[in-house]
Amino acid sequence: MRKLMADEVATNLRQRIASGRWGEDLRLPAERDLAAEFGVSRNTIRLALQRLEEAGALVRQVGRGTFLAAEESPTLAAIVKRMEGASPADVMETRLLVEPSAAAFAATNASFTELQRVRDAHERAVESKDVGTFEKWDAEFHRRVFACCGNSLLKDINDLIGIVRTQPLWFDLKARTFSEESRQRYCEEHGAIVDYLLSRDPNGARNSMLEHLQSVKQNLLRR
Q1: pTM score of the predicted model
Q2: Is residue 142 predicted with pLDDT exceeding 90?
Q3: I want to staple 28 with a disulfide (CB 3.0 to 4.6 A). Which of 50, 66, 157, 216 is the partner?
């Protein structure tokens, strides 16, 4: 539970950094003050700050405090490194923004063969007998939707998100929230997406993907 709490604190701090809240002197409040503000232990604050430091957002100086890192022109490697520490909430919000559009593109642009590959991944997920196999084909289903949307950059973005979702935090979260009921619900939602894709209905594909991801988000991030 501590890891999840630290992740939530890190997300909140990241949002404050982005808003420019500490833009004047670049120095964050002391750990004890942050702990009191968030109502968590100082150890949780340290874990959250460690996440941000590893992502390159902070510099921690012994005896002086914690400071925002000096802004530099972002590199692809630095961006990917930061993405590895993205919170489940941030990832799901990004997926909700991107994937419905990808599904709409797929309904319009995909070849018949590509759509059959999406349906095949769905059928394999339905036939899965264990969590590991289902997770494999669930991820493959979404990857194949991106593969047939006709936009290679969108496909690459999904691949990056897929890397984030292999981090330990995600395995812990999935293990605690997965159930046979959720598996069956996801399969039904995938089936609706496939039907709209095969019908070449971009609005239906977009809306059904949006509903599916909202269902996933609710299940993963429930308290």
Answers
A1: 0.66
A2: yes
A3: 66
